[in-house]
Amino acid sequence: LTYQTNGLVDNDILGIHDTAAVVLSGGLSRTAGETVAGGPYAISQGSLTANNNYTISYTGSNLTINKADLHVTAQSASKTYGSADPTLTYITDVINNSIVQDSASSVLSGSLGRAAGETVAGGPYAIDQGSLTLAGENPNYNLHFDANDAKLTIDPKTLTIIADSKSKIYGNADPSLTYQVTGLVVNANLGINDTQASVLSGGLSRAAGETVVDGPYAIGQGDLAANDNYTISYTGSNLTIAARPITVNAINTGKTYGTADPLLSYSLAGGSTLAAWDSNGGTLGRNAGENAGNYNFNAGLMTIIKVADGTDSKSNYTITISPSQFTIDKAALMITADDKSRIYGEANPVFSASYDGLVNGDSAGVVSGLNLATTANNTSSVGHYAITAGGASADNYTISYTAGDLTINQRPTTVTVDAGQHKIYGNSDPASFTYTATNLVNSDSFSGALSRDSGENAGSY
Prior knowledge:
It is a single chain. With 461 residues, this protein is an all-beta fold. It is built from three helices and 45 strands. It has a four-stranded mixed beta sheet, with no helix packed on it. It is rod-shaped, with a radius of gyration of 69 Å. The N and C termini lie far apart (212 Å).
């Protein structure tokens, strides 16, 4: 607190040169108070005194407290689309020292404002003073707002998209590639009611390919895009192609042992269809083997020609073959017992047979268990006896038989009349004429008796 003085002695003659610093001590004081409204504050003599050479005539004055300039500078801010605005902040130069301890919250009330809008593309949004003002119209400050080109930026919200796993049957059209969406904003306070249809455009896509073995096929984001308010976080999935079930009807399903396979062609059963680009111009295959029996048709050996590039497309199908087996029937083999003959009383000859129907280079050795028999034995009378065949087996043949004929011929025998047989003229013939017989078997003997030519005169008969 300063002052002006008048009356200090400055006299060269007397050798007096007084100054305020020499004459005065102490200082002025003022009425207490630190607010603008409380002033002006009277400035009084306080402790100011002069030495004994002077008496003080004091005229007071006032201390006026003027408003301080309070500068508020806005700060930029940001938020995520769809969320509430953050508190808009600012910095101030409010007074806070040993005399005055003001704070922004005690001096200011209200809040900053911003330009209207809730989209990413519409921003950034200028920040303005809004309702910010001096609390209670505080008289100690002059409020100066500096926008400082502060902006509120709205950042895109992350939209999570997870692709659904998909599958289809080989040859069918792709199913719709769908997905799950989380993160769409519905906020009544902000007037936002986003939907999938309003936010997203385009669609997913998948890796190229139409075969079972080359899958699964990755489902990518494709051209699926969101509007400016969102960025997409994408998680992919796969499209799996399953084998197409078909039933084929085998057209030629068998042959006879020893013959060549027929063309193993087929037709599609009703309700079975191939992929549009495949052709069923191929053939069936069967498991290897040439003996009589059943051999499974082998879909692995089947050919389905893929028109596009000529490759075999059977791996794209689950194939049911009806009937499931190729049958090799046994060949017909006729075994005929050979005709035989013998003399009455002899043992039967060794029987043999002939074979009609052996194929594929087979010989009689493939037949086992053949039994050739007859009812005739060494005592059987002259005549014809069947030689029957049976009991034979051969893996690849169905056997039938034709009987042979065993002829038993008469046995030659010689009857020798004993010499010297005689009688006296006029006597009766002897009781019987004697003889010997050769080559009789089986204890056979002659019955009856010899007779002679008639005559009773002396002579030889």
